């Protein structure tokens, strides 16, 4: 499938174009992913509260609700982003493109060849409509993967370039490309997937972090789709226990991550206690005394955890103990 262009509904950080995902061979994915020399387990991870770390003009779209600020403040507003075309390195332009796993294809260009590509789009904010540009400066294969690429992107507004993605210290960071859209208020993935959608997932945010943990949403392991694992991971990273988009964590708190697919394995050298087990809609079990914040108050009821993965959860998080 390919992506074409049009008005995009939803949060500005998440939808800029239209996307199609070319199929990745599931058997090849499963074989490659099971090799520890290809993907090194990361038993201890840092968690954070932002879903995506996008900087649009002077807005830092990250925070405890996936995005601190979003373009669509309510469902009745008529503000939008409209992606117009993609200018290629040779000076030509296209109005379609695709993703193969996490690698961008535009025209006949792929892998490093997409460098110096420019995405042109219009933004309507209130009575003002103006152009902005995303310049894809550099493309890099991510070490440890065969199907994940990251991109160094600049946002140009009024002839001034600034990093599209910045981390919590305001330093430039790169983005991954994903073929789904997430509700910035609830953290839920949008279903059905919009025909005209592409997510630039900044590496400081949960969307990209969970890909780098190994939960590539387009891939399978031993015939099991990782799409729900990726979504469960975004809830886990942000401690979104109730699956309502509310984060209950502090940026930088280490957590132990474990699953039953062998993507993340137990670390014998890292003592931890089980915090929770996670599904796409939040925590399916929780030990409140092991939560990342003390005196936790939630707006939902979650059973305590029993035997490992007896809850039916896909991923287990653990609190690191001395």
UniProtKB/TrEMBL annotation:
InterPro entries: ADYC. It comes from Nannocystis exedens. Pfam families: ADYC. This is ADYC domain-containing protein. It comes from the Bacteria. Residues 119-290 form the ADYC domain.
């Amino acid at each position: 499938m390919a992506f074409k262009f049009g008005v995009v509904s939803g949060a500005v950080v998440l939808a800029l174009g239209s996307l199609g995902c070319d199929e990745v061979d599931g058997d090849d994915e499963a074989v490659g992913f099971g090799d520890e020399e290809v993907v090194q387990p990361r038993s201890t991870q840092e968690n954070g509260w932002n879903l995506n770390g996008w900087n649009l003009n002077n807005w830092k779209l990250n925070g405890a609700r996936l995005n601190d600020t979003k373009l669509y403040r309510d469902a009745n507003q008529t503000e939008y982003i409209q992606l117009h075309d993609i200018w290629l390195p040779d000076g030509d332009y296209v109005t379609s493109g695709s993703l193969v796993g996490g690698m961008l294809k535009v025209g006949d260009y792929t892998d490093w060849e997409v460098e110096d590509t420019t995405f042109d789009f219009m933004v309507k904010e209130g009575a003002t409509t103006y152009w902005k540009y995303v310049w894809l400066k550099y493309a890099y294969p991510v070490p440890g993967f065969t199907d994940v690429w990251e991109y160094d992107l600049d946002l140009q507004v009024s002839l001034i370039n600034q990093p599209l993605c910045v981390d919590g210290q305001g330093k430039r960071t790169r983005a991954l490309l994903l073929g789904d859209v997430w509700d910035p208020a609830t953290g839920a993935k949008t279903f059905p997937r919009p025909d005209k959608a592409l997510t630039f997932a900044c590496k400081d945010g949960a969307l990209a972090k969970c890909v780098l943990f190994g939960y590539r949403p387009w891939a399978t392991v031993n015939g099991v789709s990782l799409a729900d694992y990726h979504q469960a991971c975004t809830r886990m990273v942000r401690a979104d226990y109730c699956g309502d988009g509310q984060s209950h964590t502090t940026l930088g708190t280490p957590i132990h991550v474990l699953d039953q697919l062998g993507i993340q394995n137990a670390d014998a050298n890292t003592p931890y206690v089980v915090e929770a087990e996670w599904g796409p809609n939040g925590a399916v079990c929780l030990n409140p005394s092991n939560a990342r914040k003390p005196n936790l108050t939630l707006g939902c009821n979650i059973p305590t955890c029993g035997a490992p993965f007896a809850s039916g959860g896909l991923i287990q998080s653990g609190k690191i103990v001395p």
